[in-house]
Amino acid sequence: MNLPRQIELSNAEFITIDTIGPPGERTFYLQAAQGDTLITMVVEKEHAAALSIAIGGLLEQLGEGELEDIEEGEQFDMELVQPVEPLFRAGQLGLGYDETRDMIVIIAEELVAEEEPEGTKVQIWGSRILMAALAQKAAAVVASGRPLCPLCAEPIEAEEPHVCVRGNGRKQIFSVDGN
């Protein structure tokens, strides 16, 4: 029997959320590193969006202001480290803050079937500025997908007109690029 594993990056030097694949078929990845340890997890688009919002809210509570306030000199490499080899698919993400360390933690738990024991749990600790950069990157990656229909909020495919259910199937909306 395999016991659940716990992995902790106590002071991540790198963290990102990015995708591989074309819009509509993208796979989202959360990746973090500390020293020689690199951890990659598959996450859902909704995880990426929620994490961006949650980090932004937490930073506002901590008095950091808007995410756009990242200092000019603070640039982080936010590209996925290749080859991308996910450890697991995340089922849950959590967020926390340790006041004594002045660090933010992301907790990712492996998605497991109901009949299986607990899976792997990863804790990624990072500075406020690193997590602010992650929140900005996650928001940009989520927004870079297919445009959403303004009426029904369903994705609009670039190759074919969108038949909107809110228009009773009679109103066709085309993607932004004019197709």
Structure class: alpha+beta
Strand elements, count: 9
What's the arrangement of strands in the largest beta sheet? 1-7-6-5-4-3-2
Number of helices: 2
| CATH level 1 name of the largest domain | Alpha Beta
Shape: globular
Low-confidence stretches: 175-179
Distance between the termini: 54 Å
Describe this protein's structure.
This protein is α+β, with helices and mostly antiparallel strands and 179 residues long. It folds into two domains: 6-145, Secreted effector protein pipB2 fold (2-Layer Sandwich); 147-179, no CATH class. It has two helices and nine strands, in the order ββββαβββαββ. It has helices at residues 45-61, 128-143; strands spanning 6-9, 14-20, 27-34, 37-43, 88-98, 103-110, 121-126, 162-163, 172-173. A hairpin with a 2-residue loop joins strand 3 (27-34) and strand 4. Helix 1 runs antiparallel to helix 2 (128-143). The model is unreliable at 175-179 (pLDDT under 50).
Quick structural summary:
This protein is α+β, with helices and mostly antiparallel strands and about 180 residues long.
